[in-house]
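Quarterly update from the structural biology core.
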Amino acid sequence: MSVMDTAKIDGMGIDGDTLVLMVSDHFTWVIGGEEHLKMYQNKLNSYIRFIDEKGYCGYYRNKNFSSFRIIIYTKYPAPDYFSVFLDSAKDKLDKKNISITVERVKEDE
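Predicted structure, tokenized:
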């Protein structure tokens, strides 16, 4: 599972009354920046649909969530335009009580 697989949730868990969805990204940004952003747009749209359609009910029955968080785990540092992309989605996501964070996963040295 990864950012390119829009038909799957990469990871899911609960933090209090927040549903946490995880995105895994092991791709480099060196080549294909526009394509990489398109993968994110598609993946985030599928996660928003999953939330809107309450797809999580099949996993967490009788659980009501007051908020949602999407955590993006990246292997490589993202360029500045990725932050601009996420900022542009923030207003739409805030209205749905969805937050996004990005964490870079560093390999053990």
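The radius of gyration is 14 Å.
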